[in-house]
Amino acid sequence: MRNRGMLTAGVALVLGVPVAAWGLMGQQNHDGLPASELDYAYQPWGIGDGVAAGVGGLALVLAGVGAAVLVRGAMDRRWWGVLGPLVVVGLMVGVGWRVLTAGVVGANIGAGMLIIFGTPVAAGLLLWAVGRGVWLATRGHGGGSGGAGRLGGVSPRGV
């Protein structure tokens, strides 16, 4: 039951962060023009700002509770090497969606920059999280001396 609670708290943290960032950031349209006259890289969802803020606030509370459970619980600290990058990617996704759907006059330069630079960073963080998670789930149970903590013949704890 304890592992299931930690897993649920981790999922709440990782999924709550992008929704909180998206909801609390609000629509980033250019001021002074009606939305019908703006250009969009991607059309935003038809959700009002008040509803988005409420959903974002609820997601922020959910993510905060998940983080508190993980910090106070007996989770192996090495798993923060998996959760940390996933939280950063979630933050990038939530903010990135608002950048991609921002109403602008002319070209949305922020959307292009996000796609060019944000995609490789997010992919690298995801690859790191998956690799670290697989390693911890399969080989990371050691802690003492011997071959239990070795990866490819090189000790991760130094000489």
UniProtKB/TrEMBL annotation:
Transmembrane segments: 50-71, 78-97, 109-130
Name under which the protein is recorded: Uncharacterized protein
Annotated keywords: Membrane, Transmembrane, Transmembrane helix
